[in-house]
Amino acid sequence: MESGDLRIFQCVAQVGNLTRAAAKLGYVQSNVTARIRHLEAEVGTPLFIRHNRGMTLSPAGQTLLSYADKIIGLLNDASKALQATNTPSGPLQIGSIQTAAAVRLPRLLAEYYSHYPDVSLALATGHSQMLIDQVIGYELEGAFIGCSCDHPDIKSVDVFDEELFVISSPSLQEEELIRKPILVYSMGCSYRKILEDWMLLSGIHRPVIMEFGTLEAIISGVTSGMGISLLPEIVIRQQIQNGLLRKHALPAGMNRMMTRFITRKDAFVSSALGAFMAMLPQE
């Protein structure tokens, strides 16, 4: 089983389509198809379920992907270690929840770039569970998440202590909150979990849920009176001051969230990542 075949397999698993995988890898499709078939013959079982919408992993494929992610991650780490220099440079892939990316990171990233202009920093956003999975799978070197993480391969440092509020349009009264839909990200979002727990505490077992893909869309939806949401005060401070939103306090024990920066325990810490972590504020 060659590492090149595993990289092709990993790419096909990620995009779910041979044509897109070939384009991403810079190969012709026939080569990608042949390498996948060769790998399936080598392991003696189908790795994908083919259908008219593309390809999804078979149970055996899911098992192999977990190993492929680790193997490829370690190979990439080895390459970084061999190419490492004492001066921060090269690529640095970081992830973040959208709230931290919107209000906490711009100043930090600008300061980092001013000190280390030779680092090519890429920032990806997503919900906490997605980011944890990407760090575990070596797709990201580190990430800012909005929850605790007890995975044995992950270490974390507390960075930002956030105060949380339920938010609504200015005209909505306290007693009306639980009757409104909740505007949230997809499953895996830490804010969503807290808001659902608060609704349950208020006697609402199945709130109407509207999922949005961006922070801006959630804030706009709440501002228009579509529903309520839950966000750190720092994110919506300007809208509250301008009279566009109203904040409502949460019970003690639910009204704070720690944003943490996570990395893999066994991953190689490049000079670029080490310099970035040295600049993090710590609560």
Report on the structure:
By secondary structure, this protein is an alpha/beta fold. The chain has three domains: 3-82, Orthogonal Bundle (Arc Repressor Mutant, subunit A); 86-161 and 258-278, Periplasmic binding protein-like II (D-Maltodextrin-Binding Protein, domain 2); 162-256, D-Maltodextrin-Binding Protein, domain 2. The chain is 44% helix and 22% strand. It has eleven helices and eleven strands. It has helices spanning 3-15, 18-25, 29-43, 59-83, 98-103, 105-115, 128-136, 190-201, 215-223, 233-241, 271-278, and strands at residues 48-51, 54-57, 90-96, 119-125, 142-145, 154-168, 182-184, 209-211, 229-232, 246-248, 256-264. The strands form three sheets. Strands 3, 4, 5, 6, 9, 10 and 11 form a seven-stranded mixed sheet that branches. Strands 1-2 form a two-stranded antiparallel sheet. The protein has a two-stranded parallel sheet with strand order 7-8. Helix 8 (190-201) links the parallel strand 7 (182-184) and strand 8. Helix 1 packs across helix 2 and helix 2 (18-25) crosses helix 3 (29-43). Keywords: DNA-binding, Transcription, Transcription regulation. It holds the Pfam family HTH_1. This is LysR family transcriptional regulator.
